[in-house]
Request: fold
Amino acid sequence: METSRYSRFILRHSVAIASFALLLTFIGGFYSYKLYRNLRPDLQELLPTYARSVTDLNEIARRLKSVDNLAVLVFSNDTKASKRFVNDLAIRLEKGPREIIAGVEYTIKPALQFFKRNRSLYIDLPDLLKIRKYVNDRLDYEREIRNPLNIFAETNIPEPVLDFSAMRGKYEARTSSFDQFPDGYYATPDETKRAILVYVPGTSSEMKIVRSAKRFVENTIAELNPRSYAADMRIHYTGGIENILDEHKALVSDLDLSSIVVSVLVTIVMLLYFKSIRGTLAVILSVVTGSAVTFGITYFMIGYLNANSAFLGSIILGNGINFGIIFLARYLEERRAMRRAVVAGAIAIDRTAKATLTAALAAGLSYGSLVLTDFRGFRQFGVIGLIGMVLCWISAFTVLPSFLNLIDRGRPLARPRAVTKREPGRISTLLFRHPGVIWMVTIIITVLSIMTWPRFSPDILEADLTRLRSRYSLEKGSGYYARYIDEIFKRYLSPIAVLPKTKRDAAEIAKVLKTRKEKAVKTNPGSPYSMLASVQTLSDFIPRDQTRKLRVLADIRSVLPEKLLMQLSPSDRRLARELIGEKLSPISADDLPSVVLDRFTEKNGAIGNLVLVEPPLGNEIRQRTRLIGFVKAIRDATDSVAPGTPVAGALPVSADTLESIARDGPRATLFAFGAVVLLVAILFRTPRITGLVLFALMLGVTWLSGLILGFGIRINFLNFVALPITFGIGVDYGVNIFQRFRQNEAGGILRVVRETGGAVLLCSLTTTIGYGSLLIAQNQAFVSFGLLAILGELCCTTAAVVALPAYLIRKQRRLGTPAQAEPKPARDERRAG
Reply:
């Protein structure tokens, strides 16, 4: 038979193409290795570089000494030994290199001593005036009752009263967050758990600094030998730095495991189906070539992988191998029909290239739809996926034919033999016998799926990003031990940082936030401002009205006699003596203890520009609408004073991520659908076949939506990707089935399912294996993607291979057209559908 010019060229130059492919595989593999060494699991790497949370975080990291910490937890029942260990460790860590250790906190004892010594200056001026008035009134009262003229008088002289207990309670409430630490050390009340906060320069995304800091801390601890202090002493790590290290470690582990699982399982199922070691090896080598070149190009285009794009290797392998499977299935079919290898290769190229190219472009454009978004987590995924699908198709129709042409020259891959009938598989048998039942079940499932649509709500987006972390971290690592930090500090340890350029703006922003909180608590408890747990500036630690306070204190000290003190209750007497203790001097910012001052000091030495905003410690902030509203409220208040002021932290990054997904996800999904419709229309051109392919796709998508809404599956920054790519990958099966149906419509859809269904199901199985490898991942975001993608795969495959063929067979029979008879199985043939 006559073959196309392209087919003849490929088969004529098989040796050169195969050799060049192996060279490209080696080069691409080398740069793929370098690419995978630069994994960036931090959430901010998923957002656009111009997203406010990202630019704000970069600006604050540029100005502040540190924005994140490594929390070292020390557990021991020997509280004296653990205190001694903490002291020794802190001294050594404070001597660490400034480029990796920005500071160390483990006690507020110096701060407590400072505030105790100057406590009188922190009493509100009206309260000091009350005390002075009480002292003067008390002196007058003592004089009156001791006046001889009043001794026998019947005049009632009222005794002045001042509730020192109430006043003490007022100020103890203000300092309760400091008093909770035993002896000023960061520890639980029983002191069996202690914490040291090691601050690291830059952001947690700077992996080189993060790793160096952790290694320095571990080495320092090893040198001290905790067990030499107490036999039961244990060390654990948590905090932002340990979070990112845990996620990075889990990411690498998941990638290694998924790559092995996909490679082994795909090889096994192909061997079981094709029963050809050499043919299977040829297909795998061709897809490895396409994948290696894809990630080699990615190294030069992007240079790193984020939490979304990191696992694309397994996905591209599982999806990209489909083109080779369809090609090899047709090639072996032609070889068994007694055609020569060259002719079989040419026919396989000519008869499968168009449908598989359409499927590749549909899948590629579905990935490519993500490129239209601003969300980097989507965009990078889309770029790599698009390139991967195109290159895997090119490899399947250049490298694979060349490999097959070379390895099929000696002992043939398949024995030539006449084939009259193919053994019916379970699916084709089921279709022949029960098309009506299958179609009724299809209608019922579709109606039930549509009935779930009213359940849709924006809250379907997952706001609690801790649920997407690695399972190891949550069960045994940083995520697990974070509960002990909460137990020790009883507050949010990583507040939102607001950093204007002047102290005046900082003071005004804090004032606006506090005012709006007070108003919200009184009039609108549901307002985001009511969730403000704390708003702090440096000025909160510097007493106000110091000159007048010092004058009032001097007045009290000058007139208060010892005999008057003796008339007070013991507790009030002690309070009064502390009040009028040593003579005080005005306090400036420079006088504050370092544990306070360092927190508000910038790299250039500027102090007092920072505002720290703490959210509530609990699940309230993990609700999508509450989180987004909370961050927006802080930005609104900040911008009302100084527009564009950086507002940075983990919560703004999370809020921007949720908003970006809600904005970009539907856009990518609609574009993917439009691209698939256009491609299918161009390929088939006839409205009938085009409609059948798209109807099968929409059936699968409808079922998938029913599963998501019916079972309450939450959508997140990663598994959202499964929605647009379901259009491209899901239409693949309908395209292959109905392309063959169009070529031989007279033979009926049942024959197409018998002849092509096996290869299509194998394609679906390899794709499902790629997704399924993520179900055993530590990273729960990977698991969520794998689950949703598998559901989409099963829905679309079932619709194309089972539901729609059942409809066509049923329709054929209702119209009175003779249905194709159920064939008798041939003894020497295996199932194909």
Summary: The two ends are 28 Å apart (CA to CA).
